[in-house]
Design goal:
Strand content: under 5%
Largest sheet: none
Order of helices and strands: HHHH
Oligomer: single chain
Helix content: over 70%
Number of strands: 0
Number of helices: 4
Shape: rod-shaped
Amino acid sequence: ASAEDDKIDADGDGIADVKQISKEELASRKLRVAFSAMDPMVVQEAFANLWTATVSAAATVKLQFARTIALGVTIGNYIYRPCQRYIVPLLEDFTEKSYHKWYPMVFSYVCRAIGASIAFQIQ
């Protein structure tokens, strides 16, 4: 349809109309040609399929990410137990008592971060 439109010489001066109009007019004209040539149901179906594929891909990535994070937290929890039992008491022997209350929380997050890093590496 666009190629046929390129040949139209409505004023009969021997030069195609598309070569005598501004870029804005050409864009508007080609948009009208495209809309008149397209079947709205086919376009709607194509957009629906594209949307479905996009949402499916996003859901798959989100689910995979959630699984990896869950695995990382589980690994981190297993790492935390020996840290709590062996490393925290060692640190408590060498640090001020005011810091001791922070060790369980800090080690919990550090171990989970290590666990997440391990999970991302093995997934």
